[in-house]
Structure to design on (396 residues):
DNA sequence: TAGCATGGAGAACAATTGGAAAACAGACGA
DNA sequence: TCGTCTGTTTTCCAATTGTTCTCCATGCTA
């Protein structure tokens, strides 16, 4: 959503002065800084910024207000590569990928490069970039990043069994499903979207 | 569509100064910069540029206006769906997807939703979004959007044969390659990247 | 020469934007 | 309990902005 001029001004101001505010500023402080004499006017603009998702009201309902800016601006970190059976190869310096919102979720995300063909029948190929939502739990049938025995990371389809064990299913008929005790498997995230360059 | 001299002037000006405008310029600002004294006159030219598809009005219909259509800024248009054997189903109103540069090229691009499973063995699944670079030619082995007999659009791997004919290869062992005379096949773009939401 | 396309001026118009002011409700400290 | 500080809501108003309209000038061409 596009901002009007004044909305952009105010957003820019908040952005630039984010560090200068010890606490998030009150409306009165902002009015003074921005040359407004009515909190009501400011309120309209702030409301627009909230609608646009660029700013968030403080949890404490009172006194102060604050600006958050999140992955929509910075992008999500590309953490490295995941290959079935090995730990995640972390990049020394994570690279940030600016992605459009519709590929993300409201929760923190990160990106991994897929190595290998264990999910090829789900359309995930060697070299693809996957966007993962950071979560420690997942529902049946979701494709997850799982850490097995604190050692191997892998991208597989999840199946929670009735007896409490967990089965990780490779979408590759050459690779059989593997079943583990619940405590052996730690969910590190859930597959959200996929990018591929040709 | 052809532009008149002044229309071209104005378009050039907008293009060159795109970065200098913090917000999209108002008509008054443009009039001043372009040496006009009547917004009404400018309006006629802008209207012509809009008709020509070179410029777009801002969403908020007022206050500030005029956006360049540059894919880095605006995003690329989602034109509709492509299903093997049918014309492209165009969306009434193309939706614009802001994508990071590394998924695009320097040339004009557009996005299509893939229907069907004809390319499933290339990792392209039903419902995937593909980014296409607008081109009327392609090299051997590239995956292209091809229009056959001015009627059917399809996404296939291209093979130019020695005798001048063209073979379109579905990446699906259930579908045999099809060979056409060169004049039957018109290339409309080349596959650049792929997006998928889960 | 008349006709037409292009380019521009200016006035009038409606919608939106940006702002002021007043009043209100909840939180909090004295 | 009372006053104060906060965000919120509402009403009103002025300026700005895109749009539409009419009128005019110029250059080209049939």
């Amino acid at each position: 959503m596009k901002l009007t001029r004044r909305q952009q001004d105010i957003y820019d101001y908040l952005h630039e002065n984010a560090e200068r505010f010890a606490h998030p500023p009150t409306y009165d402080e902002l009015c003074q800084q921005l040359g407004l004499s009515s909190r009501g006017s400011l309120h309209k603009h702030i409301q627009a910024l909230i609608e646009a998702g660029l700013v968030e009201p403080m949890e404490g309902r009172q006194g102060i207000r604050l600006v958050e800016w999140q992955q929509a601006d910075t992008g999500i970190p590309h953490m490295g590569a995941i290959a079935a059976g090995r730990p995640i190869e972390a990049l020394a310096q994570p690279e940030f990928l600016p992605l459009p919102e519709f590929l993300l979720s409201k929760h923190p995300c990160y990106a991994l490069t897929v190595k290998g063909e264990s999910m090829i029948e789900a359309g995930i190929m060697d070299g693809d970039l996957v966007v993962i939502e950071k979560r420690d739990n997942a529902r049946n049938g979701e494709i997850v990043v799982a850490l097995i025995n604190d050692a191997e990371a892998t991208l597989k389809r999840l199946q929670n069994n009735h007896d409490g064990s967990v089965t990780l299913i490779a979408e590759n008929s050459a690779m059989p499903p593997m079943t583990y005790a619940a405590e052996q498997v730690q969910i590190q995230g859930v597959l959200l979207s996929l990018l591929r360059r040709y």
